Amino acid sequence: MKHLLIKTLFIALVFGLAACGGEETAQQGEEEAVDDGVRTVDIIGNDDMRFVVAEAADGLVTGGASGQNVILEAIEASPGEELRIRLTTVSNLPPSAMSHNLAILELEADVDAFARASVQARDNEYIAPEYEDWVIATTAMLGDGETDSFTFTVPEEEGEYDYICSFPGHFAGGMVGKLIVSE
Ligand SMILES: [Cu+2]
Question: Of 26, 77, 114, 172, which cross-links 154 as Cys (Cβ 3.0–4.6 Å)?
Answer without folding.
Answer: 77
